Structure formats: C-alpha cells, structure tokens
Amino acid sequence: MTATIPNLPSLYDPFTTEAKWQKFWEENQVYKADPNQGGEPYCIVIPPPNVTGSLHMGHAFESALIDVLVRYHRMKGRNTLWLPGTDHASIAVHTMLEKQLKAEGKTRYELGREQFLERAKQWKAESGGTIVNQLRRLGVSVDWTRERFTLDEGLSKAVLEAFVSLYEEGLIYRGEYLVNWCPASQSAVSDVEVENQEVNGNLWHFRYPLTDGSGYVEVATTRPETMLGDTAVAVNPNDERYQHLIGKTLTLPIMNREIPIIGDEYVDPTFGTGSVKVTPAHDPNDFEMGKRHNLPFINILNKDGTLNANAGEFQGQDRFVARKNVVSHLEADGFLVKIEDYKHTVPYSDRGKVPIEPLLSTQWFVKIRPLADKALEFLDQKDSPEFFPQRWTKVYRDWLVKLKDWCISRQLWWGHQIPAWYAVSETDGQITDNTPFVVAKSAAEAWEKAKLQFGENVQLEQDPDVLDTWFSSGLWPFSTLGWPEQTQDLATYYPTTTLVTGFDIIFFWVARMTMMAGHFTGQMPFKDVYIHGLVLDENGQKQSKTKGNGIDPLLLIDKYGTDALRYAMIKEVAGAGQDIRLEYDRKKDESASVEASRNFANKLWNAARFVMMNLDGQTPAQLGTPIATELSDRWILSRYHQVVKQTANHIDNYGLGEAAKGLYEFIWGDFCDWYIELVKSRLQTSAEPASRRVAQQTLAYVLEGILKLLHPFMPHITEEIWQTLTQQPADLPQTLSLQPYPQADINSINPALEEQFELLIGTIRTIRNLRAEADIKPGVKVTANLQSENAQERQIITAGQSYIKDLAKVETLTIADAQKSQTFAQKKPQKGLKFIALTIVGIVFLRVALAIPDAIDDVPFFGTFFEMVGFVYASWFITQNLISAQARQKLWGKFFQPTSQKELPEIESQQPQAPEKAIAGVIGTIQVLIPLSNDVVDIEILRAKLEKSLSKAETEVNSLSARLSNPNFVDKARADVVQGARDALAEAEKQAEILRVRLQALQ
C-alpha cells in the first residue's frame, strides 16, 4: 500500500483541535485505569474543587502540573490512574441557597430540611458540574468513569464508618469549647474558612475601679462590647507595677460584677498598660486563661451576632450597635480614658464576609493527639510522606506538633449529617447540651441501641448538624478507591503516588489526610507531596477576590488556546514550590507570557509541516532509525538524546519548569532554527540520495521524539501532529497518549561534538549579526575571513565550513591561523622541518628496533627471529607513516591532536587576507572579518547613517552630562529620577562607543 502524503493545514487552529481530541480521549476512555493491567501503579487523586466553584488560575495551574506528571508516567508504562471528583462545599452551597431563598422572601426554616436538601440536589444536578466541564477544557487526562463526589453513596458510607469507629475508640466526643462562629451563616467554621484582614480600627482604654475604692486598673480593647462578659483582669505575676494587686477584686463597669485580678504569664508586660481584660467565652487566649484559673464563662452573644440576656440592657442589639452604645455608656460614667487609632488584623468569615466571633458552643470534636502522633511517627521514622521542596517538611511537622482538638460539627443542612441520635424524650423533647445520645451508622441501628438504654418508649431525633467538609476530604485518598470495602482499586492504587497541592492547605488538608490514613489504613496516603506555589498577577501580587486582581484562565484559553496557557504557566516555574508571575494586560485582556507559548505552538506546527512535506509521504516507521554520517545529523541526535535524558531527570525530580524550558530551547533553537535550516539543501530532489535519505530519517525520528517529549505539556497540538506524521487510520487510530516515552541512547550523546557545534552556530550567528550591522542585503553573498590561534577551533570551523557558507550566505571563506598571519612565508620551511623531524623519529625507531635483537642474540633461534621481526616492522612503519604527507599528518595527529577533536580533519592554515575596510566580530577566540566594498554595501550611505546615529548619541550624552553636572538637579530631584538619568547616560555612551568603532572600520 502506498503511503498517502500527510497534510497539515497552513495555520494551526487550537480551538478546533483541542475540542476534537478532548472528545476523542473521553469517548474512547483512553485514560480509563485497569487494576488488572499490571505494571507499577501510579495514582493521583485530584484535589477536589468545590462544586460551587468556577475555574480560577490556581485550578488551571495545579491541574496542568498534575497532568504533566500523569501523562509522563503513563507513557513510561506505569499503570496510571488520575481520579477526578468534587467536594460538596457545605458552607458555599448553603450560603448560596439561603441567598436565593432570601430573594424569594423565604428562610430555610420555613422551607424545611427535606425541601432544602431537595433544592440543593436539584441545583447540583443542573449547575454543579460547571467546574468539571471547565476542567475538561484543560485536557486533563483523568479517568472520568471514576469521578467521585463527597456526598455520593460510597463516600458517605466511608464517612459513617470513620465517624462511628473514631467515636467508639473514644477519639470523637461532644463538648463545650470556643469555636470560630460566623454570624452570617450561623455556623462554626474551620480555620481555613477564616480570612485575616488588616483594618483601620480603634483601641479603647477603660478604667476598672478596685472594689475597695483604692484606685483603678486601666485596660485596653478593640472589642468594647465583650467587656460585658469579662470575668477577670490579668497581669503578669512578675510585673512589679501590679504584683500587689493580684488577688484583689475590681467592680466591672455597667454590669457591677465583682471580678478578680489574676496573675498569668501569658500577659506581656510591655504591651499596652500591662493589664488585660479576660473574656473566656469570647477570646481563644482568654479561654485558656479561664480554664487555668477556673473562671466563669459568660456568653453574651446569640448565634446571629446580637447580644443575649447576659448583656443586660444591651440585649437584642447587634454587636456593632452595642459596641457604640457600650462606649457611650462608659464615657458617660467617666470610665473612658482615651480612644486611639489602631491598625490590626480581624478574622473574617470567607463565606459570610463578616467578622467571625469566638463563641463558646457545644460541638463535636476529634481528639487529635493520637492521630497526629501516628502521622509524626511515619514522618520521623520513615520520612513519609516525602515533601518536594523538602523545606515544607518542617512546616508540616510543626503543624502536627501544635494541633489541638478539631471541631468537626457545622450548623448547616447540606453535608454529611452527624450520625448521632438524641433521646429527646429524656429532656422534654428538646436537644440540649445534656441530652443523652447514641451513635450509629443508621437510624435503625440507633433505635436498637437506644431501646436498650432508654426503653421502648424512647423518642429519637438525629443531630441536625453536619460534618465539616474537611472530615470527608480527609478520607479522600482511600474513600475514593472504595474504602472501607477492600476493592481491587484500593489494593492496586493505594497508597497513591503523589499529592500535588498548594502550600496554603498543608495543615487544612494534607495533615488531615495523613492523620486519617495513618489511623484507618496503617499507611500514609501518598508517597510524595509536591507543593506548588501561587500564580501571581502582573504586579507580583497574590490573586484574590478581595483585591479583585484575579486573572480568568478561561478568557486566556479562549484567546490563545489551552496548550498555550498550560505551557506558559509550567515554563514559568523556577524550581519546585516557587510562585510564578503571569504577565497580563488588564486593559486588553492579553498575556505576553501565554502569547509566547502560542507562538511556540505555531513554530512547532510550521516545522512539522515542513518536515512532512519533505518525507515523500513516508512515516517515521517506514523511514527507519537514522544511522548518522554527517556532522549535523550526529549533532542533532546527540542533542536530542541529551534532552531526552535531561527532561526525564527533571520530571522525575519535580523540576517541571526546568523540563519545559529545556524542551523549548531544544525545539525552537536546535531543531527548528538550526537543524532544519542545515538540511534544507540535502532535501532537494537533486541532492545525493543517501544523504537525502539520512536527512529525512533524522528529521522524522527527531520530530516524532519531540512530540512524545512535549506531549505531557502540550497534549492537543502534539496529538494532532503525531496523528498526521504517523498516518494513523481515521477509523481506529492509536493515540500519542499511550505511546512509549522516549529513552535516551547514551551512546549517541557526544558532549564534545555538541560543544564544537555550538562554536559553528556561534560563528554563523556572528556573521549574520555583522551583516545586519552593515545593512548587507539578505540575498548578497559576502567574503568572510576567520582567524584563530586555536588549532581546535580552526578544525571545527573547517569541518563545518559548508554550513557556514550556506546559512551565513558566504561566497568565499578563509580560515587562518592568526598567530601565523605575519609569518606566512615561513610555512614551507616549517613543513620541511616537520618532514625532517618525522624522518629522524623514523630512523631512531628503526635503530631501536634493530638494537632489540642484538640484546637477545645469544639466545638460540630467538635472536634470529626477533631480528627479522624488528626489520620487517620498522620497514612497514616507515612505509605506512612517513613516506606520504597524508600519512605524516595522520601520525602527527595521533600524538598531538586533542582527543576531543579526533573526528575532525587536520587542516593547514590558509593565508589570511587583510582587507582595507572591514567589520569584525569575535566568537570564542575566532575573529570574524567581513571585508566591505561597494559591491557588498554602499559604504558612503552606511557611513552617513552611522555618523547620523553617532551625532544623535553624542547629543544625548552631552545633554545628560550637563544635566547631571547641575547641582540643582542632582540635589533636588528624586533619587530614582537622578539614577534614571545616570543609567541613560551610561547607555548613550556605550552606544556612541560602538558607533565610533563601526565608523573606524570604514576608514
């Protein structure tokens, strides 16, 4: 069958191509994992985005990084699973639905729990897949058949198993503690749902009078309303100013409650007045002091942020209204000392967008110490998991050491309802802090347990609260694989291989997963943790909703294509864990970074089109593996295998940015800009057939290898080109995604040759630059004189002189020994001396050879034998090595030529010409001279142009010098303006000097 001529469109259309292959991969289940496939497993579970979310730059960056790893290891032959899914996001969904109800004039309580949950499920079915569809646009190679949701049946079963098990082991308990409370959502929130914001506030100073009337103590606070719940004032026991007051009492203003003065080392004597008010029910530090000193805990807040009956006359007032009224009251009573402006940090609820309140509340908690200690044991004894970069190990360890018990209950309806049933018949039909309860995996099981404890007439009511979403997310690496059932997926793919995540959730998610996994599976949930940085905006700032500086990845995908965005982000990574900065023009919604990657895609596309048009319709397989004979072929194959080796090494060590940059430089520079140009003349139909065949083989071989190397980074364009290059059948094509990743052929790597070729490339580049400086037209061929004292360099450029002539448009090329340029006339005598010297060496060699038999003449038979052998060998040596000039050069090179140059020919220097007018450049120790004449360039026009530019530069120098000599400017102008003038002067002087040198060459 005759191969058809492959054809790529003249222009690359990323949008059509990307949609086509995303559909193909998914419809054909290319990335469906098979636990029976065999091979070393490689598994990543996706960090589940919130089901309410939309794709932001953090998602795009993280997904691109993961996809590179997964695609790479899949092509390396590993049994790969990338498992996708989403998190139910309790607070986000709850808040969104309540806003909808408020707009309809309803509340969730009016709607009822069942109808509220039905509404949530309906929303999930209709709109909850937005971010999943957006992830599909990134071309992620996940197994969509295994997509999971934290509220689906299997994961809900895992949550029940984990909760009940921990409770039965005494590691989950119910108690009254201080929690972060969001008055807007009226729920406890985790630390990760709290965003600290710096605000301009006030610091109020008040006097609390001593009960005995002997004076007062001054305290300061940023939350005056909380003084209504004060139960003590604390001082440092070592503070001499207050030591005599410890044990006395104060009368709390407004409330007229007698409270003690206590000594506690927590108090910083140097901060403020050295005395602090203590409100144990409304401040985390005060809570700890309250426990240490057995103080009363007085809660003054309702769950909606209003004040309760414990606030006296301020009951029912919003907390911020009460703040103003409390201050006015204290001022009227003469207790207000002063009000200071004060900038401080206030914790805000990320979902409710209001300041959170530390609130004393009865909640469910996980006893964290046993779980954290188990994770610490894995880290300290087995270095598991291993962090990349390694510096994050300490951060992770510090979190595990400092962890306190974890509040896991949330006062919401959307989520995993806590599997605890209260015997409300024991507390008048109400759930109170003291209502007894049973914990079970189902209502039926709870009923059986309750009957045994409370009798047949017991009335049960399930806890209305739901679990913190981080509880189910903590089980994610193994619950998604089927735990608590012992599934084949769990047996094959667990523990997972790598977790890719941001540093900001090491505690909130990473630590919770390792603690849960260590407890329930006896293993860490992943081998490696690859911590990536943030995608910063164009000003180097963190992107956030608050700042309004986010960059929409979908907008950039629509403008430049998915591959371009993916590659732009990954190429910016300089070392694992580093933040990246994405260039962005907000006025035009354009990114120079992403545009550069799109241009790279176009460069590859055009190079592939050229290659395929010159393969005579043959595929790489049909052409076969090249056996390189020419210098350029050996060079590109060496560079290719070097890049294969380096890319694999980078990815294996999570150096994804370094891998991307290395591929960019090789593909754009070595392959497209140099090798393709070098072989164009060999691809002509009139070229020597054997050379043409090797050129075709090499182009096809390297291009296919490039597509495989680049595929993990830019999957769509590489798939499209590869399909055409290999001429896959339309009805049943193979996919590049499942092709083996290239392996480096160490024997093809020749560092010495690569170094030599760099000199050739540098020489060509220098000649091209000189042509541009002299305004020599592209079609005009020039004469070039290359001079070097270094014999190795002369050998290199001699071996590649055809490339220099071809690519630099050189008609006549002279290569000379710069050191001999003044003594050229002595060349022939030197050649005679060299012949005489070699002849003497030959005679000495012959004499030594003939002397050997004399030494063993006395030995019968051996003497005559060795004498004959010595004479024959000496005669052969002289004949082979000394008679002809070519033989003498070969012998001389064996002893004196550097080993790195053995494959380059020995040359004799040509006589350099000394042109009257020339321009010069230097590469290595090679001086490059291009003689100038009116045949090549109009010298007078060039001189006039240079003189005009020089005059302009000198005018600039004079102007800036005068400005900087003026004391009024230097002393009074801003420092950056003065420095800018100095920099401009230095640049102008440099330009003037360059122009003078160029003019001098024309004299």
Automatic annotation (TrEMBL):
InterPro entries: aa-tRNA-synth_I_CS (IPR001412), aa-tRNA-synth_Ia (IPR002300), Anticodon_Ia_Val (IPR033705), CAAD_dom (IPR025564), M/V/L/I-tRNA-synth_anticd-bd (IPR013155), Rossmann-like_a/b/a_fold (IPR014729), tRNA-bd_arm (IPR010978), tRNAsynth_Ia_anticodon-bd (IPR009080). Residues 20-582 form the Aminoacyl-tRNA synthetase class Ia domain. Residues 938-1003 form the Valyl-tRNA synthetase tRNA-binding arm domain. ATP binds at K545. GO terms for biological process: valyl-tRNA aminoacylation. It comes from the Bacteria. It is found in: Cytoplasm; Membrane. Its main location: cytoplasm. The chain crosses the membrane at residues 493-511, 835-853, 859-878. A motif ('HIGH' region) lies at residues 49-59. Its EC number is 6.1.1.9. It is an enzyme of class 6 (ligase). The keyword Transmembrane helix applies. PROSITE patterns: AA_TRNA_LIGASE_I. Keywords: Aminoacyl-tRNA synthetase, ATP-binding, Coiled coil, Cytoplasm, Ligase, Membrane, Nucleotide-binding, Protein biosynthesis, Transmembrane, Transmembrane helix. Residues 936-998 form a coiled coil. It is a multi-pass membrane protein. Residues 826-900 form the Cyanobacterial aminoacyl-tRNA synthetase CAAD domain. GO terms for cellular component: cytosol; membrane. Monomer. Catalyzes the attachment of valine to tRNA(Val). As ValRS can inadvertently accommodate and process structurally similar amino acids such as threonine, to avoid such errors, it has a 'posttransfer' editing activity that hydrolyzes mischarged Thr-tRNA(Val) in a tRNA-dependent manner. Belongs to the class-I aminoacyl-tRNA synthetase family. ValS type 1 subfamily. This is Valine--tRNA ligase.
